[in-house]
Amino acid sequence: MNISIIGATGYSGVELIRLLKSHPEAKIESLFASSQAGNELTNVFPHLTNIAQFPLEAIDIEKTAEWVFLATPSGVSGKLVPSLLEAGRKVIDISGDFRLPQETYQKWYGKETAEESLRQKAVYALPEWFSEQIKGAQLVANPGCYPTAASLGLAPALPYIDPNSIIIDAKSGVSGAGRSVGLGTHFGEVNENINAYKVGKHQHTPEIEQTLTRIGGKETIISFTPHLVPMTRGILCTMYATITEEVNFQELYQSTYEGKPFVRVRPAGSYPKTKEVLGSNYCDIAVHVDPRTNRLVVLSVIDNVVKGASGQAVQNMNLMAGLEETAGLEFSPVYP
Amino acid sequence: MNISIIGATGYSGVELIRLLKSHPEAKIESLFASSQAGNELTNVFPHLTNIAQFPLEAIDIEKTAEWVFLATPSGVSGKLVPSLLEAGRKVIDISGDFRLPQETYQKWYGKETAEESLRQKAVYALPEWFSEQIKGAQLVANPGCYPTAASLGLAPALPYIDPNSIIIDAKSGVSGAGRSVGLGTHFGEVNENINAYKVGKHQHTPEIEQTLTRIGGKETIISFTPHLVPMTRGILCTMYATITEEVNFQELYQSTYEGKPFVRVRPAGSYPKTKEVLGSNYCDIAVHVDPRTNRLVVLSVIDNVVKGASGQAVQNMNLMAGLEETAGLEFSPVYP
Amino acid sequence: MNISIIGATGYSGVELIRLLKSHPEAKIESLFASSQAGNELTNVFPHLTNIAQFPLEAIDIEKTAEWVFLATPSGVSGKLVPSLLEAGRKVIDISGDFRLPQETYQKWYGKETAEESLRQKAVYALPEWFSEQIKGAQLVANPGCYPTAASLGLAPALPYIDPNSIIIDAKSGVSGAGRSVGLGTHFGEVNENINAYKVGKHQHTPEIEQTLTRIGGKETIISFTPHLVPMTRGILCTMYATITEEVNFQELYQSTYEGKPFVRVRPAGSYPKTKEVLGSNYCDIAVHVDPRTNRLVVLSVIDNVVKGASGQAVQNMNLMAGLEETAGLEFSPVYP
Amino acid sequence: MNISIIGATGYSGVELIRLLKSHPEAKIESLFASSQAGNELTNVFPHLTNIAQFPLEAIDIEKTAEWVFLATPSGVSGKLVPSLLEAGRKVIDISGDFRLPQETYQKWYGKETAEESLRQKAVYALPEWFSEQIKGAQLVANPGCYPTAASLGLAPALPYIDPNSIIIDAKSGVSGAGRSVGLGTHFGEVNENINAYKVGKHQHTPEIEQTLTRIGGKETIISFTPHLVPMTRGILCTMYATITEEVNFQELYQSTYEGKPFVRVRPAGSYPKTKEVLGSNYCDIAVHVDPRTNRLVVLSVIDNVVKGASGQAVQNMNLMAGLEETAGLEFSPVYP
Question: What percentage of residues in chain D have a pLDDT greater than 90?
Fold first, then answer.
């Protein structure tokens, strides 16, 4: 499988390079990065010295390989995908451009995106829930980092909780903000610090609602609050919902995710840590029932750069290509 | 005012020394620390070289000064307070021993504490709400770190929210776990990591419920989830509640805390950061209304070692002694 | 004493505001920050809410108060100082523009600076060594952060070490790079990371050499290597020199710095930590002799934003104004 | 290849598990950890859930597999190795017990170790320099973390520098102190902090001297100062030496390490970062010449848990077994 990455110098792009270099079937053919065109990859990322030697090229659809990963900022893939599809490429879009109906996208992202007719060609690719649609797709929309952790954590419980009671309090490492520079990622400003941001306004809110509504079959409106945590990688979603029917949630989760290689339902009473999935494609989940408040509390952790972006993208590529879902992704978290 | 600190070598103890050394009316007379008795303070804390020169002594009630701060682990002050009161000392207890009814304490802390009759002599000393009772008290129970941030953040809204809808998602720096050693505070385990702990079981839960019930006048049962964040100081409480009556929450908060020197209600749309109060006695609060879910989202930050422990203890001492509430506490946060 | 700060929105500027707000004799009158002119200080620094309320103004020499602190990037004060002096202001320049002979400056900074005749009017203001010249000066050049830690740490030993054997291996927190944004201060790039930079080329090299040459009376050429450490504040200099005459270095250092309130010579065998001076104006020093190699190893720590910049600037203001050297600077480090 | 790990619950032990699980030829058979005997591996390390399922056993030589890794504290392997050798096992000792002559060990470690006659059976296994002796060895002493970074960084230059001018200023992440609890690894004490320790006394000093003396052929006495940096993984050695013969050091290093897959000599002018090797077995080296002082400055970075311990141990196993040196170790650093 020959591969091109467009947007190779962001954090999702460079993580794709790490993962695909160890993939048994994949071969990176070309890297595109408009801001760095003409430069060498190892000048931008010296950690890839002797590992990946590539020129960084200006985007040119003609030069792309059969498989194309789009690790681009919002608003870019909407423009590139039509020609990629026309050229017959298989496309995995890591950006948000194809995840939401055009109107919803424009409302929450404040940007233009692809026409809704084109948009609908994309399969929303959360592999643990929609693998059948992913297999054989030509264009998939890789889920966002927060939506991955949140949806995997809440989906099994949906029949037994009040869909309008859901509160998702999410915490992310700084790499989630990408590699662009700004005061918001300046070490002096974010180290020894934690804060919420975009309360009630984060663009991942409608994506989570759409997924929960689709899986649960009931219109779902959530409260979603993201936070910035002084660490590089990792997302923890702490999620609250009122229980409408008492079931054994521990067993429910275990049976739901049996056979899903990247979801690890942790034993009753566990407190998963982001560090326990660092560098890996796992999503670790623990369920707690609080009898005092009749609430379910679900804890879900991922590495935002892997299961929340590039790892899941490779998992989707595997499914699209009919490979083992775990190909190239079977490595242990890096601990400590 | 002559002062003794019992438990001088924990983080609350050493912060009391920092604060009291700059206090215009206070003079530290003696420091007690059973585990370090016989040692010099500056051997334990070299940062106090040339600033505070004291021997560390074994606890001896007779030797205590008129004002006594108890910065001891749970279960200790319950035993010391009777003799301190008998000896006529003014006592500020930073531990949890006098905050809850005996039965509640024993259930949540799993430890013995003082008899309920003695316990009731203690004034629960959240100064922004109970200053009248604090003035002239002989024994005060200094609130816990999480309860301080949570109660200050929710109290003004209580008449207008559903008391049983309250969810408090709290994030704390590692100093909240104290200076005792253990895997839970090992750098290799908590750095680059975030996790929830004690879901539905944290001992600060009944303290918050008691305060909100008292202020709001309605029985209040909350969901409270603490998290450990890879930073040294700081607590952020992100709090959710369903609005039962629409009011201008921004104005409500501003007018409620007008004249309260240590609560800063931040402008509409703000996202207070823990770093913005680091080293200071401020509690910064922002209120957000989410019309999509009809929920109020309150953000409240403190420095857990200052407003969440030793700073508030000094504020209480000031009130008890009839001094200006701000005496010795008027310094800026340390930023960055 | 009425004060203006030019460059109020960098890290040195905002630290000056923190320190001067607690100073018994100083009153901030105006703040200048060209990039933020027209904005309110608390919009840029919400942590100063209710503490310091000022508009940020475009630079206007006429509007400056009697005392002017220049907390500007390299190359700016060289241009502003002539008119400030003409207007009769007392000037404390925190930037590097007046520390080096014009030619040396231009070689190491790669920028223009003031004419050498003007430059020579500035007193190099390391107060522990040059207090007599500072008293009564109209213009002082506040030393750089690395030169402060290095010079204080090495100066007493100079008569007894080989001046050409000196190696200074320095480690700094990220705030030393200022508040400007760039990949070099991006959290994702500097967290969990350490690296050297500008080996043999850092602009503080000639400043250290100049000071050691002046104090020691012997031409001194050093190796100086700065490093970036994943912390916000703090500098540690680890310094090596070959001993030419055996003396009791511990006693030498203690007697040299007796009566210097901000230098704490730590007991023999100590390992000072940057955290032990955080937020304070102290420089803590420990001396070790390695008999196997006949080398002296000196460890010197400061808070780069305080003793390495704004705290020392206030100390210099105190000296210039004939106040107690410690006025407004007598507070404890913040620990932990 | 069947493998046992003794000391499986320290940081070197758990890293061995990560690496060996991805190794094409290795199969972990049993894990020994006296302090945790009877427990399950995933109770101690939940991040290995679904990856490595093993009971933790009390040490029993009879039960060990053919290949034994010793990841034990100082003083333990000296006692275990005789019976392991007798039982015919191939042994890779990650601890320091077999690296130094008995007398030197006892002086620097302050502990007993194996008899010198036994000790001499161990091959000091720095693979880039001693691969011939490693091939076919039954017992190897894996180098220490600091000695690996330092020796690889200095070895090529030895003919052209003064061996008694060498100064090694080393900086390590906190995982280097192991997983044992203590104030020295408490987050509140080491976060936002840097300090030197064991100046002139660190037990890795004679190991580095022995290696440099052996490679360079000249008696070498060094100054070595380790520092603790607020990060989890990584070592940077900044090394200084006086040049005795001018050569093209860049070319010298490149040609010396040509064909050594885990040493990456970075281009002239580089500043390698510890993050650029995180999680990988690489040692990245840059050489700088300072003409002002006639000194060579070498920068050398490794991941202390990988190339500084378990990764190098696997590399040595590969050599001993006649496999490709890189087997199981060909993965990219984790960045960011």
Answer: 99
The answer to whether the CB of B207 falls within 8 A of the CB of B99 is: yes
Q: What is the pLDDT of residues A2-15, one digit of tens each?
A: 999 999 999 999 99
Assess whether B28 and B167 both reside in one domain: no
Give the number of other CB atoms < 10 A from CB of residue A88: 8
pLDDT at D25: 98
* Mean pLDDT value of segment A64-93: 97
* Rounded Cα distance, A297 and A240, in Å: 5
List the CATH number of the domain containing D84: 3.40.50.720
The share of chain C scoring above pLDDT 90, in percent, equals: 99
In a domain, D132, yes or no: no
Regions in chain C scoring below 70 on pLDDT? none
For D201, which residue in chain C has the nearest alpha carbon?
C290
> What pLDDT, on the 0 to 100 scale, is given for residue A162?
98
Asked whether residue B182 falls in the same domain as residue B278, the answer is yes
Radius of gyration of chain A (CA): 19
pLDDT value of position D98:
98
Q: Residue D60's pLDDT band (boundaries 50, 70, 90)?
A: very high
Shared domain check, C297 and C183: yes
Same domain flag for D80 and D172: no
Beta carbons of D290 and C200 less than 8 Å apart: yes
Is the residue at B319 inside a domain? Answer: no
Q: Is residue B154 part of a domain?
A: yes
Who among C183, C185, C192 is closest to A188 (CB)?
A: C185
CB atoms within 10 A of CB C59: 16
Both C50 and C199 in one domain: the answer is no
**Which residues, including other chains, have CB under 8 Å from residue B251's CB and lie 6 or more apart?**
none
Contact D22 A277 (CB under 8 A): no
Measure in Å the smallest separation between the Cα of D186 and chain B Cα atoms.
5
Report the residue of chain D nearest A265, measured CA to CA. Answer: D49
* Cα gap D243→D239, rounded to integer Å: 12
In the structure encoding, which two tokens stand for residue C218, read together? 């012997």
Q: Is the same domain home to C245 and C102?
A: no
Exposed e or buried b per residue across A248-277, where buried means at least 16 C-beta atoms within 10 angstroms of its C-beta:
ebbebbbebbeebbbbbbbeeebbbbbbbb
Report how many domains make up chain D: 2
Determine contact: B255 vs chain D, CB below 8 A: no
Please list the ranges in chain B whose pLDDT falls under 50: none
A165-218 pLDDT tens trace: 999 999 999 999 999 999 999 999 999 999 999 999 999 999 999 999 999 999
Domain match, C186 and C288 both: yes
Whether D107 and chain B come into contact, CB under 8 Å, resolves to no
Q: Is A243 a member of any domain?
A: yes
* Count of C-beta atoms within a 10 Å radius of residue D66: 14
What's the whole-number average pLDDT of chain C? 97
Question: Residue D188: pLDDT band by 50, 70, 90 thresholds?
Answer: very high
Q: What CA–CA distance (Å, rounded) separates A176 from A11?
A: 9
The alpha-carbon gap from D242 to the nearest alpha carbon of chain B, in Å, equals 37
Residue environment code for C201-220, b if the CB has 16+ CB neighbours within 10 A, otherwise e: ebbbbbbbbbbbbebbeeeb
Q: Which two tokens stand for residue C163?
A: 């001046």
**CA neighbor of A68 nearest in space, from A86, A95, A94, A91:** A91
In angstroms, what separates the C-alpha of C15 from chain B's closest C-alpha? Answer: 7
Q: Which residues of A touch B196 (CB under 8 A)?
A: 236, 238, 271, 299
pLDDT at A163: 97
Domain containing residue D218: 146-303
**Could you tell me if A182 and A112 lie in one domain?**
no
CATH of the domain at C157: 3.30.360.10
Two tokens, residue C253: 């250092």
**One-character DSSP codes across D219-247:** ----EEEEEE-SSSS-EEEEEEEEBSS--
Q: What is the pLDDT of residue A210?
A: 98
